[in-house]
Amino acid sequence: MLLTREAIREDKSFGLLTDAILERDQPRTTDLFFQMVKRQGRSVGEALSVVTAAEAPFVQVPNHINVKDGQITLINNDHTILGLRTSAHLAPFLPEPYRLLPLLQSVWYIPAGLDIWNQLLGRYPGRYATMKGMQVPPPSYGPVVWNEEQAPIKEAGTVEERLHAHLIATMSGDVRRSYGLFLGLAEDPEIITWACRTWPSAPCTTRSTTPRASRSAPSSPTPARTSRRRTRHRSPRPRSRR
């Protein structure tokens, strides 16, 4: 079954990944993920659960829409998480020794994808700011945590009906309701069972994490080891939304 939020927070890798992400240390973040899978022998699903929980508070935005100089700007807050999901789907199509590469590339990107709202305003460094031609110096503050923890919202209905309610809340910009409904879904054993049965990439600890394509994948030489170089810069802890 899926790891609970309590189990993830108690995981020693959770704190290490959180620190590396907040320091915008891409090599260390990637190496920690690599160590969880290849050296600690943990499943890809468990490693994804921990790294996603570590980044989640810092990839949020207050809204999906901003207006600048009369122009509507669409802002996504799920690009790093979508990258992890896509990489999990891509892995079975690669030869066995290379199946971690898509995931490692997505994990490498996480420290550059924090606080997209302020990146687009030139107030926080990262890929989006660079893409817009803004060179933001290392800040004396961390990424904004736009939404704090809240109680789960549990509503009656079928799995499909509850997922649809979450979709409507998300698309309408009702952030608190969307997050509350998500927490309610995440705590429901019926939803967890449904997700593990429906989505092959769901991080379920009771299912084998070896992709089915591995049985017929050709053998290839072992890829080069992930870089373990660490950067010296340390950024302060994140600030809360005022």
Can you describe this structure in just a few lines?
The protein is mainly α. The protein has helices at residues 5-10, 12-22, 26-39, 44-55, 79-90, 101-109, 116-120, 127-131, 159-171, 175-186, 189-198; strands at residues 65-68, 71-74, 144-145, 239-240. A hairpin with a 2-residue loop joins strand 1 (65-68) and strand 2.
- If strands are numbered along the chain, what order do they take across the biggest sheet? 1-2
Number of domains: 1
Strand content: under 5%
Q: Give the H and E element order.
A: HHHHEEHHHHEHHHE
> Radius of gyration from the CA trace?
19 Å
Q: pLDDT below 50 for ≥5 consecutive residues: which ranges?
A: 206-233
Envelope shape: globular
Total number of helices: 11
Largest sheet: 2 strands, antiparallel
End-to-end distance, in Å? 37 Å
Helix content: 40-55%
Question: Helix/strand-derived class?
Answer: mainly alpha
Q: Please give the number of β-strands.
A: 4
Characterise this structure.
- It contains eleven helices and four strands, in the order H-H-H-H-E-E-H-H-H-H-E-H-H-H-E.
- With 242 residues, the protein is mainly alpha-helical.
- The strands form two sheets. Strands 1-2 form a two-stranded antiparallel sheet. A two-stranded parallel ribbon has the order 3-4.
- Helix 2 runs antiparallel to helix 3 and helix 2 packs across helix 4.
- It has one domain.
Name some characteristics of this structure:
single chain, 11 helices, 4 strands, two-stranded parallel sheet, mainly alpha, 242 residues, globular
